[in-house]
Amino acid sequence: MAKLLQAPGKCLSSDWHIANKMQCASTESQKSSSERMTAESQRLVDETEKTTQKTQRDVNKKIEQRREEIKFWKQELDDKLEQIVNETEVLLTFKTRIEKALERCKEPLVIAQQCLLNREKRVGIDLVHDEVEQELLREAEVIKGVIVLLERTLGQTNEQIRLNRSAKYQLEMDLRDKFTALMIDDYCAGLTNNTPDIRYANNAMKMEGNSVSLQDWIDFSNTNIEKADKQRNSSLALRALIDNILSQTVNDVRKQYETVNVAFRNRVKEVKDAKQKLETLLAMVMDETASQEKNIATLQKAISDKEGPIQVAQTRLEARTHRPNVELCCDIVQYRLISEVQEITNNVQRLKDTLAQAKAELKGLSRQQLFLEEEIQVKENTLYIDEVLCMQMRESVSINNV
C-alpha cells in the first residue's frame, strides 16, 4: 500500500525534449497527411465534379440525339401513315366505283334476258334462231362475264383495303410507342440536378428482359415502313388495274349493246319488208279473188244462158217426131238439130268443167289469202315484240363510265 502511494518517478530532461520533438514530428506528420488528404479530396471532388458534369452533358447530348432520332423516325412513320391513309381512302372510292358498276350491270342483263323471253312469244316461221337472238345470248354472256370479273376485282379490292389497314395499324402502333418514348425522353431531357421530383430508383440499372437492340429498333420501324410502301404500291397497281377493267368492261358491254341494237334494227327492217311484200301479195290475191268471183259469175251465167237454146232445140226435135208417115224423114234440119243439141251440150259441159276449175282456183286463192293474213299477223306480232317490247325497253339502258 505504501508503494502505491509512492510518487511517480521524474523523467529526465532529455526524455522531455525527445518527447516534445516526437510530439511535434507526429503532429507535423499528421498535419501533412491531413493536408494531403484534403488536397486529394479537393482534387477528387473537382475531378468527379468535372467527370459528372461531362458525363451528364454527354448523356444530355445523347438524349437530345435520341430525341432527334425518334423524331426522325416518327416523321417517317407519320409520312407513311398519311400516304397509306390517303391511298386507302382513294381505294375506297374505287371500291364504290366497282360496286356501282356491278349494280349497273343488273339492268342490262335483266333486259337482255327479258328480250330473249319476249322473243320466245314469236310464232310460226318467225320463231327463228336469228342474228338478234344470237347477239342477245352473246350480250347476256358478256354481261355475266363482266359481273364475274367485277366481283373478283371487288374481292381483291377488299383484301387490299384490309392489307392497307393492317399496315396502317402497325404504323399507328409504332407511332404511339414512339410518341410515348419521345415524351419520356422529353421528360428526361428536362430533368436537372435541381428538379424537385428527382429521386433514387431501385433496380434502375437492371436491363429489361424485353429490351431490343438499337438495330432491332431501327429494323422494326423499317419493316413497318417497307410494309406500308409495299401495300401502297400494290394499291396503286390495283387502282390502275381497276381503271383498266372498268374502262374495258364498259366498252365491251357498250359495244355488244350497240351490236344487239343494230341487229334489232336490221331485223325489224327485214320483217317490215317481208310484211310489206306479204301485204302486196295479199292485195294481189284479193284482187285476183274478186276477178275470179266475177269469172265464176260469168261462167254460171253462160251455163244458164244455154238452157234456152238447148230447150228450143230439144223441143223442135221432139215436135218433129210427130211428123206423119213419109214426112218423118232424116232431113238436113233433123241432122242440124241433133248437131245443135250435141254442140250446146258439149259447150255446157266445157263451161261446167271450167266453172269447177274456177271454183277450185277461188278456193286456192281463199286459202292463200288466209295464209297471207296469218303470216302478216305473225309479222305484226314479231314487230310488236322486237320494236315495241324489246327496243323501247332497251332505250332505258345507259352504259357510261363510272
From TrEMBL:
Keywords: Cell projection, Cilium, Coiled coil, Cytoplasm, Cytoskeleton, Flagellum. One of its GO terms (cellular component) is axoneme. It comes from the Eukaryota. InterPro entries: Tektin-like (IPR048256), Tektins (IPR000435). It holds the Pfam family Tektin. Residues 261-288, 341-382 form a coiled coil. Residues 24-60 are annotated as: Disordered. Residues 33-60 have a biased composition (Basic and acidic residues). GO terms for biological process: cilium assembly; cilium movement involved in cell motility. It is found in: Cytoplasm, Cytoskeleton, Cilium axoneme; Cytoplasm, Cytoskeleton, Flagellum axoneme. The keyword Nucleotide-binding does not apply. Microtubule inner protein (MIP) part of the dynein-decorated doublet microtubules (DMTs) in cilia and flagellar axoneme. Forms filamentous polymers in the walls of ciliary and flagellar microtubules. Belongs to the tektin family. Microtubule inner protein component of sperm flagellar doublet microtubules. PANTHER family: TEKTIN, TEKTIN-1. This is Tektin. It comes from Nothoprocta pentlandii. The lineage of its organism: Eukaryota, Metazoa, Chordata, Craniata, Vertebrata.
